[in-house]
Amino acid sequence: MGSECAVFWDESVLGYDLGGEHPLHPVRLDLTMRLARSLGVLDGVEPVVPSQATDQDLERVHRPDYIDAVRSAPTVGPEVGHGLGTADNPIFDRMHEASALIAGGSRGAAQEIVSGRAERAISISGGLHHAMSDHAAGFCIYNDCAVAIAWMLEQGFERIAYLDIDVHHGDGVQAAFESDPRVLTISLHQHPRTLWPGTGSAGECGPPDAAGRSVNVALPPGTDDAGWQRAAHAIVPSLLDSFRPQVLVTQCGADPHREDPLADLALSVDGQRSIYRTLREWSQRYAGGKWLVLGGGGYSLFRVVPRAWTHLLATVLDADLAPETTLPADWMAHAARVAGNTPLPTSMSDGYDSSFVPWDGVTHSSVDTAIRDTRQAVFPLHGLDPFDSRD
């Protein structure tokens, strides 16, 4: 790659623990890093230990009264408000410290890129994209994605592209920067009529002073590898080529997978591997190789997230794994102990063909309708022809 890739990780990030039955369980992170190590993906890599984001870091995105509420929540309880103490965002001990550590990891990863010490940096514990300036939402206390982007803007970056591939709309990041023409946010997600948070329609393009800087691709339930990639390739490259970002930030939630219990898209691990390789290519082609990679959602804790994000780590580190790679016996034994009765896969593949047919400008399916709607809403705002499949 020509320069170091920074991997931000420490077991202390597992302290962001919303409770034993909560879908966002830290075991998914632990199993991912164990699998990546066991497969040799992290050979020769010394992870960077994240440090907590400061109040100054957080206040670039969050209101001071909200940060104070997060700090006091473990002693005050649900009466503290701000979306804290709900089923989605339960209060837990040292919540501020754990949440600030996640934000600090993503901010630190951004700093590695801005400083020139690395072209790529990854923090899989990040990607908490739903948190708003004054309240928690969707399992997210602090919006580490927005914290990292805001810090890079303060360092003088003038064009940052944020691409969100989580199954849920990247609403918190869009809200943070929808009026800032320096940030292009693109979110590919399940259609808001069918999934929380109910936002992210094609018509959400940003206010007049930043028209076209918010891009949303609302995919129908059941969209598979071929449909997802067809949509992404029909929309994202043209916008990145027009915007010419100085860095590409990607939120790589693993929950578009067909087995995810909280959503209804139908990707496979094979499709996710292919998508990660595409993101790498786009970072090289459109962002000069600068690529900040964050985790996100993903609630098939044992079968999907560890494999998907091990492929993600391998892709970022240029240590690509063959799909047919067998899962190591030591990892299988450990995973079996924590997974209980959940049957485990045996390889890094689901056995699916992840190829796709590029969009040809004609509406053949509900995925093509989503492509058409987004292109018609956004492309003219970038000087692009929504009807020309070459754009």
Automatic annotation (TrEMBL):
- What GO terms describe the biological role, i.e. biological process, of this protein? acetoin catabolic process; epigenetic regulation of gene expression
Q: Name one Pfam family in it.
A: Hist_deacetyl
Arranged from A to Z, the UniProt key words for this protein are: Acetoin catabolism
Cite the GO molecular-function annotations of the record: histone deacetylase activity
The record's listing under InterPro entries reads: AcuC (IPR003085), HDACs (IPR000286), His_deacetylse_dom (IPR023801), His_deacetylse_dom_sf (IPR037138), Ureohydrolase_dom_sf (IPR023696)
- Does Ribosomal protein show up as a keyword for this record? no
Q: In which pathway does it act?
A: Ketone degradation; acetoin degradation
The Histone deacetylase domain extends over 22-315
KW Signal (keyword) present: no
Q: Which SUPFAM superfamilies match?
A: Arginase/deacetylase
Family assignment from sequence similarity: Belongs to the histone deacetylase family.
- Database matches in PANTHER family: HISTONE DEACETYLASE HDAC1, HISTONE DEACETYLASE HDAC1-RELATED
The protein here is known as: Acetoin utilization protein AcuC
